[in-house]
Design goal:
Layout lengths: L1 H11 L6 H5 L17 H30 L9 E3 L2 E7 L8 E6 L5 E6 L15
Antiparallel strand pairs: 1-2, 2-4, 3-4
Length: 131
């Protein structure tokens, strides 16, 4: 039996030990394979900035949507995301009153999902801090 283990030991002698290397990744990769926000201070800062920009865009769109709803341009005061862009449902007959790109249509065909012109900032990623 001891000779069997000696053979295994001989075969495995050339295998590298990656324990220290793998420790660097501990608690940085989530079970779904994405990086945890806490993987680095810079990643955390960037993700916080992205969320801040999303909130600002949503707030701006909510105000814009309220104005459109008062004028009967939209059926529902609803903001959704289509292809990583915020979109609002615009009545087909009112589509010329809203600047932006049509990203699709509702299943009934009564509304067009339109990304308002002010929405294009959503795709920009924050750069490194100035200074």
């Amino acid at each position: 039996m001891r000779s069997d283990w000696a053979a295994v030991q001989t075969l495995s002698a050339g295998i590298q030990d990656f324990t220290d290397f793998l420790r660097q990744f501990h608690n940085k990769i989530l079970p779904d394979g994405t990086l945890d926000d806490r993987a680095s201070a810079e990643l955390s800062r960037i993700r916080r900035e992205i969320e801040k920009q999303k909130r600002q865009i949503q707030e701006s769109l909510r105000g814009y949507l309220r104005k459109l709803a008062e004028g009967g341009t939209v059926q529902d005061e609803l903001i959704t995301i289509r292809g990583e862009r915020f979109v609002i449902p615009v009545k087909v007959e009112q589509k010329r009153r809203v600047q932006g790109v049509v990203h699709g249509a509702s299943s009934s065909g009564a509304d067009r999902l339109r990304g308002a012109a002010r929405n294009h900032r959503a795709e920009q990623r924050p750069g490194p801090p100035a200074g």
